Amino acid sequence: MLEIYNSLTRFKETFKPLHEGHVGMYVCGPTVYGDAHLGHARPAITFDLLYRYLQYLGYKVRYVRNITDVGHLEHDADEGEDKIAKKARLEQLEPMEVVQFYTNRYHRDMAALNVLPPSIEPHASGHIIEQIAFVQKILDKGYAYVSNGSVYMDVEKYAKDYPYGKLSGRNLNDIVTETRELDGQDEKKHSYDFALWKKAAPEHIMHWPSPWSEGFPGWHMECSTMGTKYLGERFDIHGGGLDLIFPHHEAEIAQSCAALGHETVHYWMHNNMITIAGKKMGKSYNNFITLEQFFKGEHPLLSKPFGPMVIRFFILQAHYRSTVDFSSEALEAAEKGLQRMQEAYARLLKLQAGNQTTVEVAGLRQRCTEAMDDDLNTPFVIAALFDSTRAINTVHDGKGTISEADLKELREVWKTFAIDILGLRLEEQGGDEGKQKAFNGAIDLLLGIRLQAKQNKDWATSDKIRNELTALGFQIKDTKDGFEWSI
Ligand code: ZN
């Protein structure tokens, strides 16, 4: 029987890892043929949150997130050109140059979003031998067939023995009507059969030898293979975006059951999608906004640049199973919310303890823990933290007091939930933009003091400031109405 948990309600009670104290977690990573966009940020942040929370609960987590660098064709129904190979052909690059280039940029964007790197990041192209062995196992069990050098999953035969479509709630009839007939499908018995191995066409530049043909693995094969290679034949959590349930995850389940005779995944978790002004993100809508475009404000749909922490906060403001609709106004609101949190945290760090507590701070840790336990309810965690800002401001304004023990606890709860679990960088007010502003302000302040000194004929102070700033690499120019500086 296939057990499906699509959410972890009452996390602590319902989540039972297969090996005590350890969690194995596999998340479908990016296909690296272009820059990461908002649609990549959501699963990365959702499963980063889970990774951080599991570690907070004391589990030793092995987190595997793959890099798809071969076999993901333009149409999910096994047709079209390989996405990486196409990019390589268009840009006259070696496919692995495309892979390396976009993998580096993906890592850069994920680091900006404060997404922790996974424990293992396997590449599909580095596991061809293992994938061939996995395909062979399915053939040996009789759930696949070879046709014209390609190997296809025999879905009809498989569906007689296992519940194909259970994860997506589809049955074979639904799938038949959904599956488009495309060129080359005549070598399949049924349109819903999917490729485990594809014979490479002569113009196809990424191919490897196999018992069946010079070719490449089907897209779904890498996750079945690498998941079980690094996490074992049964592992705890498999995650990804909701759009991957069908065909990708349904195919993964079928491949694993066919080869091993049982399900490998204990809990499936899927994050919902991001829409842009109510529309799905897609090439046909021309509404893909890359993370870099967000950070630089370079897209017609953006009113201004938005820092990576604003994007992270924006995504965490919604529960991972709800849809999020992006608009520039929604991001501006998220930016204000994040600033309020950053200000509150800066105040919290500066508060002085009193003899007793006269403000409402009790129960904050419990509220945050209960919210996280309730299927990672981040909007509730954020609301609880916001509620506590009232107490912070009351003490800050001198209208209340907080005891030393309560202040220590309040600081710890903010550090644990806002910084360590939600992964918000609260100490960097305004991100890079804010740092730059503060830096410029400090230099202007120093040169203002120098100007004052000059007017007072205090040449010693004036020269000291100029000489020491010059030694640090600044160029200072006196002008008619003040000064100018550069580095
Ligand atoms: Zn996958």
Task: Write a structural description.
The strands form five sheets. The chain has a four-stranded parallel sheet with strand order 2-1-9-10, sandwiched between helices. Strands 5-6-7-8 form a four-stranded antiparallel sheet, covered by helices on one side. It has a three-stranded mixed sheet with strand order 12-11-13. The longest helix has 25 residues, at 431-455. The termini are far apart. Helix 8 packs across helix 9 (245-260) and helix 16 (431-455) runs antiparallel to helix 17 (459-471). With 487 residues, the protein is of the alpha/beta class. The protein is built from 17 helices and 15 strands. It has helices spanning 11-14, 38-56, 83-91, 95-112, 128-140, 155-161, 172-178, 221-231, 245-260, 291-296, 308-316, 328-350, 364-373, 378-396, 404-421, 431-455, 459-471; strands at 22-27, 60-65, 73-75, 79-82, 144-147, 150-153, 195-199, 215-217, 235-241, 265-271, 274-276, 279-280, 324-326, 475-479, 482-486. Helix 9 (245-260) links the parallel strand 9 and strand 10 (265-271). The protein has three domains: 11-271, Rossmann fold (3-Layer(aba) Sandwich); 279-421, Isoleucyl-tRNA Synthetase, Domain 1 (Orthogonal Bundle), CATH 1.10.730; 433-486, no CATH class. It is globular, with a radius of gyration of 27 Å. Zinc ion is lined by residues 28, 223, 248.
